[in-house]
Design a protein that fits this description.
This protein is mainly beta. Helices cover 0% and strands 62% of the residues. It has no helices and five strands. Strands 1, 2, 3, 4 and 5 form a five-stranded mixed beta sheet that branches.
Amino acid sequence: MRCDRSCHRRARHTTGQGRLVTVDSPDTARATTCFATYHVDGYTEGSLVAPRLPANIGHYEDTFRRVDGIWLLASRTLVLPYGGPTERLDSPAQS
């Protein structure tokens, strides 16, 4: 069976450090959410991957609008001050 890169990728996207929400009006709000992503290519099912540094660290700047009483995401801006390539694991199967 042939597999594209995604089936050998181990990835996690973690959000945290709180969410700063500013209510601008009864129907508009803004929020900032921090995140870190971890990526490793070359993953083999059942194997453990040693801890790595994050591949990307940044935050989202979101705006929300209330429409008919429901809060909806109106826009999202990605701010990515720290980023790097995805690490490729060496494994005997790839030799």
